[in-house]
Design goal:
This protein is mostly helical and 160 residues long. 54% of the residues lie in helices and 2% in strands. It has a two-stranded antiparallel sheet with strand order 1-2.
């Protein structure tokens, strides 16, 4: 392979890695494509902004959740939420745990902060989606639960 082609693959790999889950599935067909084509293909599948105007990514979801939490008096910080999201789901809003004790009972943990349906329903915050996989709804409900149980999501340093 010519040396000139190697940087292009590196850029594509970095672009695909930044996109998130599913990038490995896209890597094979896109390897020969230019960076612009790879960017165009992925940018059309995910809107760049949420309905509230925040970036449609982990940073935006956390910031939108924090704005809702501030209105509802739910404590929590960006760093506390981010730390727990990375530990629980690596930032994948479609994450689902099919192997732990909750899953064995038929109620797997789902979403960014790995919430089970009964907890999500009990701590759902008005004004957010009723979809447990919705990133903002998942974060906000989990933070509401953590506030009631631990005082704040900031006080959670392990599975909760």
């Amino acid at each position: 392979m010519p040396t000139a082609a190697q940087p292009r693959r590196t850029r594509i790999a970095r672009t695909l890695t930044a996109v998130g889950t599913g990038a490995a599935l896209l890597a094979l067909p896109i390897i020969g494509a230019t960076t612009a084509a790879a960017t165009t293909a992925t940018s059309t599948t995910t809107p760049s902004k949420t309905l509230a105007g925040y970036p449609n990514n982990l940073d935006g979801w956390i910031r939108e959740s924090l704005a809702i939490m501030a209105q509802k008096g739910i404590p929590g910080s960006y760093n506390g939420i981010h730390r727990n999201v990375i530990r629980e789901s690596s930032g994948n809003p479609r994450a689902i745990n099919l192997w732990d004790s909750n899953a064995a009972k038929g109620i797997p943990s789902k979403g960014l902060l790995q919430v089970i349906n009964p907890t999500f329903n009990a701590y759902h915050v008005a004004g957010t989606s009723y979809d447990i996989y919705d990133p903002v709804a998942n974060i906000t409900a989990a933070c509401n639960y953590a506030a009631h149980r631990y005082g704040s999501i900031d006080n959670v340093f392990g599975a909760y």
